[in-house]
Specification:
8 strands; 2 domains; two-stranded antiparallel sheet; elongated
């Protein structure tokens, strides 16, 4: 996330994919530029040149992004879309003040006059357009009226691999203590959010939990444990993670791996096999 503050709004479509959704129509820079152009040209009758107005829009967006993006989309400040909704109004006030302060020196000219009120209004409405986009980004992909968004495979794939790896690690700890793998999430020592990207209020069933993009199901016995992640959307891949115990004494030793479907699929790969000390994925999937 460290690169985000500098490039945030300049590369808005790419940066916004980090939230889990893909912006289809507009990025923030064109939207803010259009809002400012309409305000100054149509309503305030101030003829600011297009190149200058575009440059001012880019400069002020970079400045406000240094504050706004890290707070809104960094887990340290907004650990979930829900908390980000509470953070955004505070950031809006900060960025409105910053952009309004920058407009005065950047838009200063002898050929026209702009009042402080007009500058504040310009900053207000252009920022409001940006934060409207942020709100749309934070809407869950399952929201019925969220028609301009779709799950981002890059984000979903990154999350699911991290979650499966964490669950397999918990299984190894469970085996160290009990000499068997857990067959349900209830047997594991921690709550779902400890595995990464799961709702804090979620109560696990015997063998299944879910996050925004996948359903997760586990199984285990005295020899192996599996984690199957079935995609919720047709444009996402499904996964199966597995861990084998290959040596029990003096300390357990494990071999594990994750198989990913070669094509988007809502059906996870069947259980991988262990041959000659290596994980072999079933047909139609590949080892990560």
């Amino acid at each position: 996330m460290m690169i985000v503050p500098v490039l945030a709004n300049v590369a808005a479509p790419q940066i916004l994919t980090l939230t889990g959704n893909v912006l289809i129509v507009f990025s923030i820079i064109p939207v803010e530029f259009l809002v400012l152009w309409l305000l100054f040209h149509r309503f305030f009758k101030v003829q600011i040149g297009v190149p200058k107005l575009l440059l001012v829009t880019i400069v002020t967006n970079i400045a406000t992004s240094i504050i706004g993006i890290p707070f809104a989309f960094n887990n340290s400040f907004a650990s979930s879309p829900g908390t980000a909704f509470f953070v955004l109004p505070i950031l809006f006030i900060f960025t409105w003040f910053i952009e309004g302060s920058l407009y005065s020196p950047l838009l200063k000219s002898k050929s026209y006059r702009i009042s402080k009120r007009q500058l504040r209004l310009g900053a207000f409405w252009s920022n409001l357009a940006s934060y409207a986009i942020f709100v749309l980004v934070l809407l869950p992909v399952s929201t019925p009226f969220n028609l301009f968004w779709q799950p981002n495979p890059l984000r979903a794939n990154w999350e699911v691999k991290l979650a499966i790896g964490n669950i397999l690690s918990y299984q190894q700890v469970f085996y160290d203590e009990t000499s068997k793998f857990a067959s349900s999430f209830k047997e594991l020592p921690d709550s779902p959010q400890a595995y990464g990207f799961f709702n804090e209020t979620q109560i696990p069933t015997d063998s299944q939990i879910e996050n925004q993009f996948h359903y997760f199901k586990i199984d285990g016995d005295s020899e192996k444990a599996t984690v199957k992640a079935a995609a919720k959307a047709k444009n996402l891949n499904s996964y199966t993670g597995i861990v084998f115990v290959v040596k029990e004494k003096p300390e357990p030793e494990f071999i594990r791996g994750i198989c990913k479907t070669d094509q988007p699929s809502t059906v996870p790969p069947t259980s991988p096999q262990l041959k000659d000390g290596k994980i072999q994925c079933p047909s139609g999937s590949s080892l990560l």
